[in-house]
Design brief:
The protein has about 450 residues and is an alpha/beta fold. It folds into 3 domains: about 220 residues, 3-Layer(aba) Sandwich (Rossmann fold), CATH 3.40.50.300; about 160 residues, P-loop containing nucleotide triphosphate hydrolases (Rossmann fold), CATH 3.40.50.300; about 30 residues, no CATH class. It is about 35% helix and about 15% strand. The chain has a 7-stranded parallel sheet, sandwiched between helices. Helix 2 packs parallel to helix 3. It is globular, with a radius of gyration of 24 Å.
Length: about 450
């Protein structure tokens, strides 16, 4: 861990219970990160906090330590039922909810606090049973939380702490009505500790904070530069048919240990995975419709290093803390500038360094000006030279794409142009064209 990532404030110097200090020590944490140093003293003193910091800077530990301290030092009322959580933590995605639960288990292993995580896609009956048996800290995604709430599996009358993580993502995923539904079922803001954290604090998020929190203190860390200093950003300008050869050439040339490759569509992700596998790479693909059990399996294997390359749509761009991601590739430039920040934030976490490589191709080049305006600097570019382009073996599962323009006749549907049919030769198949990847 880089020393620049940390402050001079030891975690042990904060007013934390002994049970938490033991868990912190066993987890190997010693110094506060900047967001922890600024928000923890406020939250421990009972002040509501809305915090902004770059991804990977310790926001999760900040609110978990504050929430657990509150619960340990304020015994529950004798009338509280076991299925009434004392703390509610809401996350926009299943992957982030699972990660928060994992961090809570690590930090709170000596507290005796009962943890539960609920999310859609799997485990409906087992999650429900866990709630019925008792929970102190409930972590979940909005849809599954509201489902159980409306069935009276739990209620929020005894909640003393509420946390919204990645609050801006709640707006992006149209969860804001669900969030307000849950917030309005909690005790009044002055009777609970409320914390809101995000990598970006937009006007809408701040408005939400002031509407449902008790005079929150706004804490912003490193807002002058949205991308981490330890990320080495670089861009290439390939033609669409050069993207796969360039990707494979760079993967072979770079000393990448754990790599994430971001695409804009499921179809492009499947094609990239097929090409990589056929050319000798061990890779998995992650998109929104991959079954939850398999998604968690892929993430676990990726984190353990069993799968060194993960191809993903933006479902994996936020909230995941996977140590040791050395390289992030934007195979497709994101169409939302904020997603660029969250994608490359998967590397250079916790003070480490990393590389972010972006392909500015014919299809998505229009996104670059907005991205550079948003991040406040230009992304350095490198020329695409022949030595960077690998010889690529086409997997049999990939069909040749139909040519652009008008299509007429049955033979045109076989994916060869008129001139190619006359000569009897098809185009040399190199790579998928992302412009066709809208499936």
């Amino acid at each position: 861990m880089s020393e620049k990532h940390l402050t001079n404030t030891p975690l042990a110097s904060l007013d934390l219970p002994e049970e938490l200090l033991t868990g912190i020590s066993q987890a190997g944490f010693i110094q506060c990160t900047p967001i922890q140093a600024q928000t923890l003293p406020l939250a421990l003193a009972g002040h509501d906090v809305a915090g902004q910091a770059q991804t990977g800077t310790g926001k999760t530990a900040a609110y978990l330590l504050a929430a657990m301290t509150r619960l340990l030092r304020h015994p529950p009322a004798a009338t509280r039922a076991v299925n009434q959580p004392r703390a509610l933590i809401v996350a926009p995605t299943r992957e982030l909810a699972v990660q928060i639960h994992k961090d809570a288990e690590l930090l709170g292993r000596h507290t005796g606090l009962r943890l539960a995580v609920v999310y859609g896609g799997t485990g409906y009956d087992s999650q429900r049973k866990q709630l019925e048996e008792g929970v102190d800290i409930l972590i979940g995604t909005p849809g599954r939380l509201i489902d159980y709430f409306q069935q009276h599996v739990f209620d929020l009358k005894a909640a003393e702490v509420v946390v919204l993580d990645e609050a801006d993502r709640m707006f992006d995923l149209v969860f804001i009505k669900d969030i307000r539904f849950l917030l309005r079922r909690l005790p009044k803001p002055e009777k609970r500790l409320s914390m809101l954290f995000s990598a970006t604090l937009s006007f809408r998020v701040v408005e939400l904070a002031y509407e449902h929190m008790n005079n929150p203190r706004l804490i912003q860390v490193e807002t002058d530069k949205l991308t981490a200093n330890q990320v080495r950003e670089i861009s290439y300008y390939p033609a669409n048919e050069e993207k796969i050869p360039l990707l494979i050439g760079l993967l072979r040339a770079m000393s990448a240990t754990r790599t994430m490759i971001f695409v804009n569509t499921k179809r492009t992700g499947e094609e990239v995975q097929a090409y990589l596998e056929h050319n000798g790479f061990n890779v998995a693909s992650l998109s929104g419709d991959v079954p939850q059990k398999k998604r968690l399996q892929y993430l676990s294997q990726f984190e353990k290093g069993e799968i060194p390359i993960l191809v993903a749509t933006d479902v994996a761009a936020r909230g995941l803390h996977i140590p040791g991601v050395s390289h992030v590739f934007n195979f497709d430039l994101p169409q939302d500038a904020e997603d660029y920040v969250h994608r490359i934030g998967r590397t250079a976490r916790a003070g480490a360094s990393g590389d972010a490589v972006s392909f500015v191709c014919e299809t998505y080049a229009f996104s670059l000006p907005d991205i550079e305006k948003y991040i406040g600097h230009s992304i350095p570019s490198v020329a695409v030279t022949p030595d960077l382009l690998a010889e690529v073996q086409r997997p049999s599962s990939i069909r040749r794409h139909k040519p652009e323009g008008k299509r007429s006749g049955k033979s045109q549907g076989r994916g060869r142009s008129e001139g190619q049919r006359r000569s009897g030769r098809a185009r040399k198949p190199h790579a998928p064209n992302p412009s066709h990847g809208s499936g």
